[in-house]
Design a protein that fits this description.
CATH architecture of the largest domain: 3-Layer(aba) Sandwich
Radius of gyration: 22 Å
Number of domains: 2
Low-confidence stretches: 1-14
CATH class of the largest domain: Alpha Beta
Helix content: 40-55%
Order of helices and strands: HEHEHEHEHEEHEHEHEEHHH
Distance between the termini: 40 Å
CATH superfamily of the largest domain: Periplasmic binding protein-like II
Mean pLDDT: 92
Largest sheet: 10 strands, mixed
Length: 340
C-alpha cells in the first residue's frame, strides 16, 4: 500500500529544512571564513589559500571537485550555496555558472591585473591561469616532419589507430568547445566523427601520455603541463620518449584554455571573496604559478611563467572569447558522436 504524506507534516518538514538552511547561512555570514569551490589542481588551490591566509589572516575552507561537478552543484544550490568563490581548470564550467547569473561582477582593480585576452567579455569572472593544447608524440615512432600540421588532420583516415585522447574529461571537452567556436557545428561534428573512428580513448591525459611513452600509440592530444610535471616529479618515467608538438599558427590545436575564478553573487563575504580573487590574480598569486609545481601559465599583467615553458606569446594561440565556450552544445555533439 502506498503511504501518503500528511500535508501538515510535509509543511513542517519543509519549514524545518528552510530554517536550518537559513541558520547555516547566518552562521556562515557571521564567520569570516570564506568557502572556495576548487576545481583547479588541489595542490595549487592549497598553495593559493595558504599564501592568502598568511598575508591577510582570512581563513579559507576548500571544497575540491571537478569543473562540471562543482559547476552543476553551484547551479543546483543557487542562492543557498555556501560557496563564496569558484575556481576552475577550464572556461566552459565558468560560462555554465555565469549563464544562470550566479556570479557577481569582478572588481575593476582585479580585472585591471589581467590582460583582456585572459578574461571574458562580460567581466563576471577572470582568468587565473592557463594551459596549452599540445600533441604529445613518441619520438621513436614519429619524426617532426611526420607530425600533424593541424588538429583537424587527426580526423583523416591516415591517422586511424595511431593517436589517443581522453574525451570524457573536462580538459578535452574545453578543446572541443574551442573548435566549435572557431570552426562551427558542422566542422566540429565532422572532426568528432573522425575522432571516434581514429583515436583510442583513455581515462585522463596522464594515462594517454603514458600510452604514448610506451609506444601503444604514436601521439595524443593533451595539455602541456602533464609532460612538464612528469619530467619534474619522476625524471621522465612516463614521458622520456615523449616530445611536445605545438600546432601554433592560430590553429584550433593551439588553443590555450583559461582557468577561471569568480565570486558567487549570494556570498555573505563579498569583501573577503573579492579580496581572494584579487590575490590570486595579483603578483603573489601569479608567482605561485611561476615557482610552484603546477607548470600552468601565469596570466597576470607582467607576470612571468615558469621559465621551462614555451612563452605564451610564442604559442600563436587563436583568439577566443572564453565567455562563448559552450559546454552544453559540446556535450550534445560528443554524445551524438558516441564519445561520452
Amino acid at each position: 500500500m502506498k503511504a501518503s504524506l500528511n500535508p501538515f507534516t510535509l509543511a513542517a518538514t519543509l519549514s524545518a529544512l528552510l530554517g536550518a538552511s537559513a541558520l547555516a547561512l547566518q552562521a556562515h555570514a557571521e564567520d569570516k571564513t570564506i568557502v572556495v569551490y576548487n576545481a583547479q589542481h588541489e595542490s595549487l588551490g592549497k598553495e593559493w589559500i595558504e599564501a592568502f591566509t598568511k598575508e591577510t589572516g582570512i581563513k579559507v575552507t576548500m571544497r575540491q571537485g571537478s569543473d562540471m561537478q562543482l559547476a552543476n552543484q553551484l547551479i543546483q544550490e543557487g542562492e543557498a550555496s555556501p560557496a563564496d568563490v569558484f575556481l576552475t581548470e577550464n572556461s566552459p564550467a565558468m560560462t555554465l555558472v555565469d549563464g544562470v547569473g550566479l556570479f557577481a561582477p569582478v572588481e575593476k582593480d582585479t580585472l585591471a591585473q589581467v590582460p583582456q585576452a585572459y578574461q571574458p567579455s562580460d567581466g563576471h569572472w577572470v582568468g587565473i591561469a592557463a594551459r596549452s593544447t599540445v600533441f604529445a608524440y613518441n619520438k621513436t615512432k614519429l619524426s617532426e616532419d611526420k607530425l600533424p600540421k593541424s588538429l583537424l588532420d587527426l580526423a583523416d583516415p591516415a591517422w586511424k589507430g595511431r593517436w589517443g585522447a581522453a574525451p570524457a574529461g573536462a580538459d578535452f571537452q574545453a578543446i572541443v568547445s574551442a573548435l566549435l567556436e572557431l570552426k562551427g557545428e558542422t566542422e566540429t561534428a565532422k572532426w568528432l566523427k573522425g575522432l571516434k573512428e581514429n583515436a583510442t580513448p583513455y581515462k585522463g591525459n596522464s594515462v594517454a601520455m603514458k600510452a604514448v611513452n610506451a609506444g601503444e600509440i604514436e601521439g595524443a592530444v593533451i595539455y602541456h603541463y602533464y609532460w612538464f610535471g612528469d619530467q619534474a616529479k619522476t625524471g621522465g618515467e612516463n614521458s622520456k620518449n615523449v616530445g611536445l608538438h605545438y600546432f601554433k599558427h592560430k590553429d584550433p590545436g593551439a588553443f590555450v584554455s583559461l582557468s577561471g575564478g569568480g565570486v558567487i553573487k549570494s556570498t555573505q563575504h563579498m569583501k573577503e571573496a573579492q579580496q581572494f580573487l584579487k590575490f590570486v590574480t595579483g603578483k603573489a598569486g601569479q608567482d605561485i604559478l611561476k615557482n610552484g609545481t603546477s607548470y600552468e601559465y601565469a596570466v597576470g599583467k607582467d607576470a612571468a611563467s615558469n621559465d621551462k615553458l614555451v612563452p605564451l606569446a610564442d604559442l600563436q594561440a587563436p583568439e577566443i572569447d572564453p565567455a562563448k565556450l559552450n559546454s552544453k552544445k559540446v556535450t550534445e555533439l560528443m554524445t551524438a558522436a558516441g564519445l561520452i
